[in-house]
Design a protein that fits this description.
six-stranded mixed beta sheet; 17% strand; five-stranded parallel beta sheet; 2 domains; alpha/beta; 395 residues; Rossmann fold; 17 helices
Amino acid sequence: MIVRKQIKELESRIMEPRRTIQVVAGPRQIGKTTVVKQLLERVSIPSMYFNADAVEAGAKEWIAAKWEEARARMRFSGNKEFLMVIDEVHKIENWSEQVKKEWDADTFADVNLKVILLGPSRLLLKRGLTESLAGRFELVPMGHWSYEEMHEAFGWDINQYIYFGGYPGSAVYLPNESRWRRYMRDAIVSPAIEKDVLQTIYVYKPALMHQLFRLGCGYSGELLAYNKMLGMLQDGGNATTLVNYMEVLGESKLLTGLQKYTVDKSRRYRSIPKLQVFNNALLTVMTDGMTFEKAYTNPQLWGRWVESAVGCYLLDRADELEYQLYYWRDNNEEVDFVITRGDRLLAIEVKSGRWQMNSGLATFRERFHPQYSLVVGGAAMPLVEFFGGNLENLL
């Protein structure tokens, strides 16, 4: 069984004196619950695990009841410390206020009850953490599975990873691509939108959100203006609405629109977005009529999948390494990805091995003087080397 790297950080924090609530947050179906269960087997602290998935949203006393149950267990056994885990905590209305009340009560009474909360994305936890629990939590972000993890766990090669993405639960269905697609739609896509987004925040036009998600995933790796998107969507709206919905999808770790890199930061927000999924499985499943053979044997199509896969990897590392991700384009010259962290600047160009390089990278180097520039894919840096490398060494 794969042991994800976050378990070491979480274990280290749990073994420290009680200071903050630990919040494990990330996309759907990437193993958050599994990591916490592995943690409970590794640590000697007595614990209780609760799941709010089947609890009614209006059950306001549920958190208080479970908290008191953990306290009673701790007192009954005479434990000096205790660990409580609440999974799917966001399903409870006003969960953050209730957690704050119980946590503060333990702090005041010197009750050494440590707490881990789990949620399927930062979107579901964002408002509660920043508004009610400010100063009381630490985030343990978990991203999508990497190529190395999918290769180690399921034996996937790099081309399978580029096309099928990094959802571990889907791996068993790989021999039957039609079945894999059904699993992705039923277990990943539908719950991600219906439960993780629409049941958590108010969306004025849910049909428009669905359409934007489907359209954006299918155009991953391409530039598409919001006004042009409006002409391709059936449900009426305006560009501001689409920008807001894209922000929600980005916070949900599903889909985002990268901004153009410019020295003048105010111009970035007016740029045409470059659409980018967080997991290439979403590009694949939202592209009608696509098969692995069709994509892999078509140089233009496969170039899109390769570029999108690199974008997924860079997005996934952005929170952990605290950098911002952009693209750059000037007329016909472009650079696929630009990373900034403080005064550090990194340019990355992607090619599938079948396309000739354009002059964009050379122009970007001359104009902006990045500390490093990389060419990924083809005869340059092999994709396996890129996905297995340490990006932090360049930042």
